[in-house]
Write a structure and sequence with these properties.
The structure is a single chain. The protein is α+β, with helices and mostly antiparallel strands and about 70 residues long. About 40% of the residues lie in helices and about 15% in strands. The protein has one domain. A hairpin with a 2-residue loop joins strand 2 and strand 3.
Length: about 70
């Protein structure tokens, strides 16, 4: 799946992109790590917010040993 600006993703898309469980994705949304948009009873994630989350949590290998 390509991430384009202004795309609203389902939590299932987030789990596939990040390769994490549904419970982990919901936890990240619940604590505000990944912002959500509520449309009625549905939660959606803006693709640009997911990209920001990925960029903020990207480290080089050497940073793990500092």
């Amino acid at each position: 799946m390509l991430l384009k600006d202004s795309t609203l993703l389902k939590s299932k898309n987030v789990t596939e992109i990040l390769n994490i469980s549904h419970s982990k994705a919901y936890h990240l949304m619940q604590i505000g790590e990944i912002p959500t948009v509520r449309i009625g009873k549905f939660l959606r994630i803006r693709s640009e917010d997911l990209i920001k989350y990925i960029e903020a949590n990207t480290y080089t290998f050497s940073q793990y040993f500092e």
